[in-house]
Amino acid sequence: MRAPEYTYSNFLKAIGKFPAVCGTYTDGRDSNAICRKTLATMFAHFAQETGGHESWRDIPEWRQALVYLREVGWTEGQKGGYNGECNPDVWQGQTWPCGKDKDGDFLSYFGRGAKQLSYNYNYGPFSDAMYGDVRPLLDKPELVADTWMNLASAVFFFVYPQPPKPSMLHVIDGTWQPNDPR
Fold this sequence. Notes:
Blueprint: H1 8-17, H2 31-50, H3 91-95, H4 120-131, H5 135-139, H6 143-146, H7 149-159, H8 168-172
Helix pairs in contact: 1-7
């Protein structure tokens, strides 16, 4: 069921780009246990975001992960998707200026990749992490589905904090500690 674009080689490239994932902790934390929990959590998210979710199949639902490269119901070139923050009068549109198609309309930033990366305010930081420039993926968001970035985008989302939320990695590895006992 897995889409053939999701490969082990692409997963290794993605992990290699973000060495904090399954890195070695030198402060007494169990690196191997954290790595196992990290990978299990990441793949659970992949299954939830891109899974077939077809309970009638002989394949257990948890094994139906990585089926979709693009958000169900969306195709490349489709207009009006997840681009409400593209307006250059809002801070998201200024910080991560959206690309435009040949008609001058904003590109669509619908879910792509193993974590279904969405919106310009996620594509821009991911592009910056990969290229040192926000423009490449804001101008060609389809690369998140069509290249090894289908998995790299998911690993990025796992390690990237977005205030007020910490990174998922820092929750898993115990780096982040809540400051409100509620």
